[in-house]
Design brief:
alpha/beta, six-stranded parallel beta sheet, globular, single chain
């Protein structure tokens, strides 16, 4: 018996001596791998060591400290949100749950305005104008803001364009004026500083004051700096409705003059009378691409947009900022003039309320506690209750709320949205903040795109309607936007690349958010790795906050960073 025990002990010690330590930190086993290229998927493993992908293939040669069984599930690169408004929400809650639960690993911000550069006066106004989410502004530059997010802890990576309107306000304030040559040179220097701090390019938003006041020469000048700093121009164009085609021409011209690639934010044909224009716009974009220009677009997967009642009023009345706008609306003569322009059949500005109608204008966000009970009503309902016209009701709500009032406008055609999802140069952006149904996020409603934009693509347009293949959808959620952003080591499942990885069930992924009940999480994503760490595990956020600042190519922290003589000095 003693001999048997001794032999058994020796065998046990010998076997222990041969046990090898884990070869990887994480191994995702037996998933269906969509590597981001758009090619055929295959069954295999993805292994991660540190923050990088260490193996992609049929069977990882070694075990992981953490093993994830993924049989029957898709394994793909992390998804990129090309139009995020999580600038404030991530300060409140770094988890960004509504998008993390859809597989987002990179939030890209900066549509028209950005969180820097800020002057002392701009900071004071931002503090004064804050809504449900309150926060201190401890930064001045865009880079300092992004570092603040990283330091506080975020689940997803973050990046930003520098806002053309933000640059304009730094130098010109919010007035409707053109820059002098000296002022334009100052604006260009601000863009260069932001680009060398890691901005992705310059973002404009041309239906809103004061961005609307910028003319083509000004925008081309700023885009030129973005291009020679390895970035691109991205724009909420001057029109998505009555002047849709002319706005696309303007964007293509800015790209041509600057040498920078250009992307259209949330491409859409807004308003029934404009729905037929989409095919002509697609033809314009494809002609420009065939001619050698890099023109792309992104979109959200809904037939309604969301913005403010400022998109129902002429930009001239908004000059000088929201405080001056409201003061003017209180003047009887000015109000009368605004009402005439709001009711015009052929307005001189982008009047989204005219296309949506009062019944198609849903009220979702107020600052004033006394107005919050109106949330979820249409503008038509409020106008009837008050016994006034919809235009008068809109003006009164802006005055009473002290803000632009957030609304949802129903504008687009189902078939056009479906058509766009399959375009090979189309990526995707929520045009919303990442949030959760808790805390200050419950003080207002939102658009369902905040909770469902990306899951809706994979559920409705890929699985149910088969508008595009899953491999192609994954490419347009990952490798395509990563390439457009100049990110050489993200957007693909490839050895050596950053380990941003999503595991989801193509048969079960589903959006649940509706216009009536938008604050409902999507389901079907089980695991999300960000920089090699599990940010979502078994469908729930972890305590890890592995998100980092992702910077553009001119970032001077890179050995080859810095701007160059022209956009042509970069490979695109």
């Amino acid at each position: 018996m003693k001999r048997f025990v001794a032999v058994a002990a020796a065998l046990l010690l010998g076997s222990c001596a041969t046990v090898q330590p884990p070869a990887y930190d994480v191994v995702i086993r037996s998933g269906t791998i969509y590597d981001g290229s758009g090619g055929q998927p295959f069954t295999g493993d993805v292994a991660v060591r540190g923050d990088r992908i260490a193996y992609v293939g049929p069977r990882a040669p070694g075990r992981g400290a953490r093993e994830i069984a993924a049989a029957g599930q898709a394994v793909s690169p992390g998804f990129i949100n090309m139009l995020s408004w999580s600038t404030e929400s991530l300060l409140q809650d770094g988890r960004g749950q509504s998008e993390l639960r859809q597989g987002i690993t990179l939030q890209v911000m900066g549509e028209g305005t950005s969180m820097g550069p800020l002057t002392p006066q701009m900071k004071a106004l931002e503090l004064q104008r804050q809504g449900d989410i309150r926060y201190d502004i401890t930064w001045s530059t865009l880079d300092e803001y992004l570092r603040t997010l990283e330091r506080r802890g975020v689940s997803m990576n973050v990046a930003s364009f520098v806002g053309a309107a933000t640059v304009r306000i730094n130098v010109l304030g919010e007035a409707d004026v053109d820059p002098t040559p000296e002022q334009l040179a100052q604006m260009r220097r601000l863009v260069i500083r932001a680009m060398e701090d890691g901005a992705m390019g310059v973002g404009s938003s041309l239906i809103y004051a004061p961005g609307n006041y910028a003319e083509v020469d000004e925008l081309a000048a700023l885009a030129t700096e973005a291009g020679r700093c390895g970035g691109f121009y991205i724009s909420h164009m001057r029109s998505e409705a009555d002047r849709f085609e002319e706005a696309v021409d303007e964007l293509i011209e800015i790209s041509r003059r600057s040498g920078a690639p250009a992307e259209i934010y949330h491409l859409k044909a807004a308003g029934r009378s404009n729905w037929p224009k989409l095919e002509r716009v697609i033809a314009k974009i494809e002609a420009a691409r065939a001619g050698g220009q890099r023109i792309t677009a992104d979109m959200y997967t809904y037939t309604a947009g969301s913005t403010g009642l400022d998109a129902a009023m002429p930009p001239w009345v908004q000059a000088g900022g929201v405080e001056q706008w409201i003061a003017r609306l209180k003047e009887p003569a000015t109000r009368a003039r605004v009402l005439v322009e709001m009711r015009a059949e052929t307005p001189t500005f982008e009047n989204l309320m005219r296309h949506a109608g009062a019944e198609g204008t849903l009220l979702v966000g107020f600052k004033n506690e006394k107005l919050k009970p109106l949330t979820g009503k249409t503008l038509a309902q409020v106008a009837r209750e008050r016994g006034v016209s919809p235009q008068d009701a809109a003006i009164d709500l802006v005055i009473e709320d002290g803000s632009r009032v957030q609304v949802v406008y129903f504008l687009m055609a189902d078939e056009n949205v479906a058509r766009q999802t399959a375009l090979p140069w189309m990526s995707f952006g929520s045009d919303a903040e990442s949030q959760a149904p808790e805390g200050p996020f419950l003080l207002s409603s939102t658009h369902p795109r905040a909770y469902g934009n990306f899951a809706r693509l994979l559920a409705r347009y890929v699985r149910d309607e088969k508008r595009l293949s899953l491999a192609e959808a994954v490419r347009k959620l990952s490798a395509l936007p990563a390439h457009n952003l100049g990110l050489a080591d993200r957007g693909r499942l490839r050895v050596g690349d950053m380990a941003d990885v999503v595991v989801f069930d193509p048969a079960r992924i589903q959006d649940h958010a509706t216009y009536e009940k938008p604050q409902q999480f999507a389901t079907g994503v089980s695991h999300v790795l960000v920089n090699g760490q599990l940010a979502l595990e078994n469908g729930e956020p972890t305590a890890a906050r592995p998100g980092r600042v992702v910077r553009g190519r001119a970032w001077t922290g890179r050995p080859d960073g810095g701007c160059r003589s022209s956009a042509s000095d970069w490979s695109w």
